[in-house]
Amino acid sequence: MIRPFGWNEFLIIVMAAQWTIALSAIAFAGGGVGGLLIALARVCDIRPLRLASLAFIRVFQGTPLLMQLFLVFFGMNILGLAINPWIAAAIALTLHASAFLGEIWRGCIDAVPPGQREASTALGLRYYNRMRYIILPQAARIAVAPTVGFLVQLIKGTSLAAIIGFTELTRQGQIINNATFSPFMVFGTVAAIYFVLCWPLSLLAQRMENKFSRATQR
Amino acid sequence: MTEVTANASADVRGASDLAVCMEGVNKWYAEFHALKDINLSVNRGERIVICGPSGSGKSTLIRCINQLEVIQKGRIVVDGHDLTAGGKNVDIIRQETGMVFQSFNLFPHMTVLENCTLAPMKVRGKSKAEAETTARQYLERVRIPEQAAKYPAQLSGGQQQRVAIARALCMNPKIMLFDEPTSALDPEMVKEVLDTMIDLANEGMTMLCVTHEMGFARQVADRVIFMDRGEIVEIGTPDEFFGNPKHERTRNFLGQIS
Ligand SMILES: Nc1ncnc2c1ncn2[C@@H]1O[C@H](COP(=O)(O)OP(=O)(O)O)[C@@H](O)[C@H]1O
Ligand SMILES: [Mg+2]
Questions:
Q1: Assigned fold of A7-217
Q2: B123 contact residues in A (CB cutoff 8 A)
Q3: Could you give the ipTM of this predicted complex?
């Protein structure tokens, strides 16, 4: 039964964008926490922690996101947990975002001049206060643009969750296409929605980048 | 065994009359021997100037005193606290010593006032009002009270370095360490920073200054140290040191810089 691609189908696809946004938000929030921990582990004085966090980053940067999704999805099954695309996608994307944000933020922490750590240490500030008041606020300014840039990648990356059966924007498009068989209309709509989500963020990242490079030129 | 322990603590008691006591201090950066058997006692209230060619270990020496660098051999006792015993002592010593760097190292994302109040609030547990009052007093003393609300980037080099001095003083340190505080400054700003340091010396602060400002050394130093290749080559009063340097290397060095 092939039905035409109409207003209704269009709305169904638009509504599915909420799951893309929700999944992106969860992965970004989880990745924010995980990424901070990974970044701190990468710059800490404890060698095993440094190596473990480096290994984590290398594994997630060196394998396709799709494989990460598969491994978490089927791994949960092997561990005897019920197969749940939602949870699997959230976990996989959170781990993925933790690795990438961890590496981005490590670079930003390293970009803070060593004199800042020395001066705060010499004042008697200990690790927590040094990080909280001196190092991280300065790293954060550098981090805004690349972080927003990664968020764009993450939003687009959630489309892979369609393959493990999570019904977000892309998967909803596939479902509608199976019913209407108007692939050009359907996937054109899907792509347009991704664009509407990502483009403003790209612009924002660009503006931040310019602002920061101007600020450092002074 | 007991005897050894008793001796060790007697030593610490002897050292506690001193501001800084370094005994047989050796420091390596990987294979590179940066400090070789350094022995140095600094009395309370004493002003020491350290000079020597670039790479001779002057920065390393004073950075060991607040453990920005860790030594591999020897002992350092600061204000009666044995740094090499580690633990809490390191924190105590860092609170008791102020440090001023060649490159100022002010916190660029904080105002001058915030630069000066952060450590007293977070380390000494002072209230904001109390910390600000103290900070304004010290900014007054380094003669820039009107810059309190500005950011470091809005100040000249000389002003920034005076803020750095005020920031260190706000912790009420017993010992001040200076690592070439005027070397990064334009010539016309050197004097204002040196004047601030002279004021401090006149108030009786214990100071260790790495500097090549020999006029400053003559005027305020109790003793001048010449370092070369990780060793203390010569140490003496300014009169001895400048008037009658004993070592060839010292004479060569003084010949080059004057
Ligand atoms: N972090 C470091 N790693 C390796 N070598 C260092 C380090 N810091 C200093 N050095 C070396 O130790 C020597 C003494 O350095 P430093 O104490 O900075 O000299 P100075 O302050 O007298 O110019 C130099 O040869 C320098 O290259
Ligand atoms: Mg130096």
A1: MetI-like fold (1.10.3720)
A2: 123-126, 129
A3: 0.90
